[in-house]
UniProtKB/TrEMBL annotation:
Entries under Gene3D superfamilies matching the protein: 1.10.287.130, 1.20.5.170, P-loop containing nucleotide triphosphate hydrolases
Domain of life: Bacteria
Protein name: Methylmalonyl Co-A mutase-associated GTPase MeaB
Family: Belongs to the SIMIBI class G3E GTPase family. ArgK/MeaB subfamily.
Signal peptide annotation: none
Amino acid sequence: MEISTLAEQVIAGNRRALARAITLVESAREDHRAKAITLMEEIGKCGRQALRLGLSGTPGVGKSTFIESFGMMLIKEGLKVAVLAVDPSSSRSGGSILGDKTRMELLSREKNAFIRPSPSQSELGGVARRTREAVALCEAAGYDLILIETVGVGQSETVVSEMSDLFLLLLAPAGGDELQGVKRGIMEMADLILVNKADGDLKPAAQRTCADYAGALRLIRKRPQDPMDFPKAMTVSAIEEKGLQEAWGEMNMLIDWRRENGFFDKRRSEQAEYWFAQDIRHGLLSQLEKEPLKSMISGLASKVARGEITPGHAAADVLTALRGH
């Protein structure tokens, strides 16, 4: 299919065309990459914007259940919702389960919802390398809100904040150890902390955990892009669908404030610069996988292993060769 035709179909809201476009931008083949760049330029002309929500959370916290309940609520309000769920890839086989779609049974049947699981491959950051481009494609297809679900919680999962307008951190009710377990880096990135499973016997524990996090957030240095009382912690119950409307209200309040004060557009500009630098970095690294550098690196690695040359000296030789390549 011609790239211009594919772009037109994506902009027209064709779901199959959107799926094909995402497959194209995720491809590692060089000829596909050239087509993907052309496609991204074509769809960029439509100028559509959606609200981008990044979501991270500890394994078992109920991310999929939250996304389904939250997404269904937004669809009832007349919004179109896209979910980009990134699954961890095996470091041995490279495979991924990609089971998020089956865990969101109700949402996956909605005509105004689009769910796309993607493997993280070898990428750190909790997102796939081309997730940012998949987000832009969903925006062009007319979705009002795009949820980017990361693989889990850790220092590297903060990369999702570089492609989202709001970063939500979903946590389960727990004691003080949970507070120690979540890294400060991801706490500083979060715009809203949502303590899930605030129902049944876990409700008191959820309220205590929420209070703990609210206290911890007050100790973190104030960010210029936040109004008073942000970032904040709230309790929600994805199963009982409680607190979701209140959380959505807080998200809209924060986004409106950032738009009015110029932080929304400024942040998107900074993100574009970040991904420009990342693309250059990835492009340079990909050169190391091509001949003759690939054979040179293999030979130098053997010499380093035998102790014939230091790692620093070997690396300097590769960089010299790369500069002359």
